[in-house]
User: Fold this.
Amino acid sequence: MCGLGRGILASIREVAKLANVSPATVSRVMNGTAKVDADKRERVLKAISETGFVPNEVARSLFKKSAKTIGLIVPSIDNPFFTQLASVIERTADEHGYRILLCNTGNMVEKEKTMIQMLTSMNADGIIITTSNEEIRDYIDACNIPIVITDRRMKKLMKCDYVHCDHYEGGKIAARHLIECGCKNIVCINGPQDVSSAKARYEGYSDVCKELHIKEQCMDCDYDFEVGLAVTEELLEKYPEVDGIIACNDMVAISVYKVLHKRGIKVPEQVQLIGFDDVQLARLLTPELTTIAQPIDEIGKKAAELIINKGECNADKQEYIFKGQLVVRETTNNKKEELHEKTRNS
Assistant:
């Protein structure tokens, strides 16, 4: 060591020696875990100031049984839904003095396993994860810290809380809206069917078709902008008479609009379009995108609070389901809305 001048990282023992107290007393002052004589407390604080002592956060977390850290594991930060969700979770955590550690896995199960192990070894206070990988079940069940699964649902509920939107009802709302808007030839662009959210959205659309005796027409697609471009080109070749499209999420809906615009197909005059999520980009598109809005703020806030309020998270595990909401903008021609507007102005 080069001495105990300011700016030099010191150990807790060196702080204790300078303050003429025990290392345990330094820990008590740092963590506020017990009452310390005012004179000793003053000497410790002065020694910390003089040495520029930086406490080891891992050691502190082990001592306090809390790292004030929440792990957030998402499948893709390229998807703006997860970017917005992360922002809400980070804001909620910050309000309670917690930090967020964001982990991007590319939906790869091995990365998810690695991130769970890492966060557990760091003594994180909990993990919020979006996953469709059933293979991760044993890792989650064996985890000794709270885990909350968001946006998706495993085939069998595990010992963790779930926070997500009612994707099935959202699919029904989307289908009914296009029908109410006069569409006769609707095509549903499905998200990956091994993802619970995508499967539920498609099932909602499918059940409306069965209920109203409408032919089901669909195309498979990933939650991806580039893939959405290619799928839309195929859709227009396979279903040239299409007049309504349900996209699996807003990013794919934007892909659809881009292809339609390039081909000179007018939206909503010739083809009406609806997305899912209501990400910020949906309002920036021209025309603005009609979509099924997930309550991202409520979902993110609830997920973070379940970790922060450990008493609630360690109680009986629960599933929190939020309702999606139809947001009518400019890519659909809502005849009921138009009629209401004309009646009101007459």
Summary: The longest strand covers residues 69-74. The radius of gyration is 26 Å. The chain has three domains: 12-55, 67-166+297-324, 167-294+327-341. The longest helix spans residues 196-212.
